Amino acid sequence: MKDTQQKHLWWQEGVIYQIYPRSYQDSNGDGVGDLQGIIQRLEHIKSLCIKAIWISPLFSSPMADFGYDISDYCDIHPLFGSMDDFDELLQAVHDRDMKLILDLVPNHTSDEHPWFKESRSSKDNPKRDWYIWKDANEDGSEPNNWLAMFGGSAWEWDEHTQQYYYHAFLKEQPDLNWRNPEVQEAMLDVMRFWLDKGVDGFRVDVMWHMIKDEQLRDNPVNPHYKAHQATYEKLIPAYSTDQPEVHDIVHKMRKVLDSYDERMMIGEIYLPIHKLMTYYGTDKSGAHLPFNFLLLSIDWDATEISSNINQYEGALPNGGWPNWVLGNHDQPRITSRVGKAQARVAAMLLLTLRGTPTIYYGDEIGMRDVPIPPDEVQDPQGLNMPGLNLSRDPQRTPMQWDRSENAGFSESKPWLRLPEDYRRVNVKTQLEDEFSIYALYKRLIKLRQEEPALHIGDYRPVVASSPLLAYLRYTSDQRFLILLNLSHKPCHFAPEHFNFEGTIEIDTLPEREGATVSKHVSLSGDEGMIIRLK
Ligand code: NOJ
Predict the structure, then answer these.
(1) Is the C-beta atom of 242 inside 6 A of ligand 1?
(2) How far apart are CA 508 and CA 225, in angstroms?
(3) What is the pLDDT of residues 286-310, one digit of tens each?
(4) In whole angstroms, how large is the CA radius of gyration of the chain?
(5) Of the residues 276, 308, 367, 430, which has the maximum number of CB atoms within 10 A of its CB?
(6) Which residues, at least 6 apart from 236, have a Cβ–Cβ distance to it below 8 Å?
(7) DSSP secondary-structure letter at 97?
(8) How far is the CA of 56 from the CAs of 19, 104, 280, 360, in angstroms?
(9) How far does the centroid of ligand 1 lie from the alpha carbon of residue 68, in Å?
C-alpha cells in the first residue's frame, strides 16, 4: 500500500519543535527559563503550526550537565517550577491541540540520585549491581581503556568501596547497568509515570549507549583520530556502544508505549545509516523515530546531500517513517554553519523532505551561535576540553523575543549572554517583516501541513547537477517540484528528460512567488523554490 493511503499519526504528519528550557522564557526573573515561561510563549509555537514540543530535561538535577544528570526522574527541578506548573503546561499544550514530548535519560543518572548513593554505599548493597562497578587491574589501573565523551577516562575510582564505576559522560553521570532487570523495571516505571499523566512521548537520550559489552573488552584505537577532536574520538566505541542487546531494551520501552494510545519514542542515535536503521526494530518494534542527524554532519553540498537522502530513503525498513533534523542543543546552529542566506534554503529543505522535521528553537528566526568568552563558559564539555572549541553554550543562548533589554527573555541578566545583534534578530522584529526567515518558516510549515503531498507524500529525486538539489514530493493527485540552490551563485535547471510546468508556490525570494515556470528555470544564488506542478 502507498504511504499516502495509510492512516498517519500525529508524529508522522506534524512538525516537532525542540525547547531548551533554560533558554526559552524566564517568568520569575532569575535569568533562567522555566515552565511558566514556556506557557507564556505557547502561542508563538502554535502560530508556527507546530504539532509537538520536545523539551530537554526538566527534572531534579544537580545540573552538572544542565539537567542530563537526573537525581529524581519523577519530579521537576525548582528552577523550572513545580509539578503543578508541569501539569498546567501539559494541559495548555493539549488545549492547543499540540503534543508534549519529554526527554528520557535512561543511560545514566546523577551521582546524587538515591539509586547511586545506595549503590556506592557498599559492595553488598542491593543496588550495587544497578551501576557498572569493576575491580581495578592488578596494577591499580582502570578495568579497560574506555573513554568518557566529556574527556578523560570513563572509569572513576571509588575510594570507599575500592572499585571503579563506569560513566560514558561526566563522573557525575554514572551509567546504569541495563543488564539488571530491576533497572529495566524501574525505568519503565518512570515512563509509565509520565505517560499516565498524559505525556505524548519521549526523546530517549543516547539510546545507542544503553548496553555495553558484557565482557567490557577494550575499544580499538581509531587510526583516523586528529588532535583537534575530542579525546573520546581516540578510540572506536565498538564495545561501549551499539551492542546487539540494546534492541531488547528498546523493544521493552516500545511495549510500554504501545500499551497507551498513540504515544511515541524518538531515539537519540549518532550512528551510520545502516546501523541507525536497526533502531526501528524488527517489524517496527523499536523506536518510532531514530533521530536522523545526517544533515548535521555532512558537507553543505548538493551532491553530498542528495546522495545521503537517497541512501537514507533506500535504507529505511518497510514502513519505517523518516525524519530530519537541522539543529539541536548539542550542535552548532544551522545559520552559523551555512550562513544567513543558506539558512533559508536549509529551512526549505528540512520542511519539504519526506519525514518528520524537528526544528530547534530559535532557528525559526535565524539565531546564530553566540560567542561566549572563555570565563563565561558553562558547558562541561567545553570546560573539560578547553581549546578544542567544543562548548555547546553558543547554541544554547536565550531565545531572542524582542528589542528590549535581555531580549524579552528575562527581567534579569540571562544565564548565558545574548548576541550583539539581538535587537535586529528577534521574533517581534521579524513578525513585522514579511520577508523575514520567520515568515518563511511559518509559510513553509503551513504549506506542509495543508498539502498531503508534502507531509505524507512520496519522495523522488530529480537528476540535477551541483549546486542544485532537486526532488519531487507527490501524491496521486498533487505534485511539487523542489529546487534548492545550495550555493551563492546563480544556477540553471534545465532537465533533459523531465518536462515540467507549474507555479512557484513558495520562494526564498518571495518576489517570484506566483510566477509560472516551465521546462527550465534560473535560480539566483541562495534561492530555493517549491513549484506546484500542473
Ligand atoms: C545527549 C544530550 O543531548 C547531551 O546534551 C548530554 O550532554 C548527553 N546526552 C549526556 O546525557
Answers:
(1) no
(2) 39
(3) 999 999 999 999 999 999 999 999 9
(4) 24
(5) 367
(6) 219, 220, 221, 222
(7) T
(8) 6, 9, 22, 11
(9) 6
> Which of these, 58, 78, 80, 55, lies nearest to 67 by C-alpha position?
58
Q: Which of 105, 110, 205, 207 to mutate to test the pocket of ligand 1 (most atoms within 8 A of CB)?
A: 205
Give the position, in ligand 1's atom list, of the atom nearest the Cα of 105: 11
Residue position matching grid coordinates 516551465: 518
Distance 180 CA to ligand 1 centre (A): 23
Model confidence pLDDT, tens digit, residues 448-492: 999 999 999 999 999 999 999 999 999 999 999 999 999 999 999
Annotate 280-331 with three-state secondary structure. Answer: HCHHHCCCCEECCCHHHHCCCCHHHHHHHHHHHHHHCCCCCCCEEECCCCCC
| pLDDT tens digit sequence for 426-455 | 999 999 999 999 999 999 999 999 999 999
Q: What DSSP character marks residue 73?
A: E
| 170 sits in which H/E element | none
Specify whether 205 is catalytic. Answer: yes
Question: What angle, 0 to 180 degrees and rounded to 10, lies between the N-to-C axes of helices 246-258 and 181-197?
Answer: 30
Helix (H, G, I), strand (E, B) or coil at 10: helix
Would you call 3 exposed, middle or buried from its count of C-beta atoms within 10 A (0-12, 13-18, 19+)?
middle
Pull the grid cell for residue 179.
543488564
Cα atoms found within 13 Å of the Cα of residue 12, Cβ hemisphere only: 16
Q: How far apart are CA 344 and CA 363, in angstroms?
A: 10
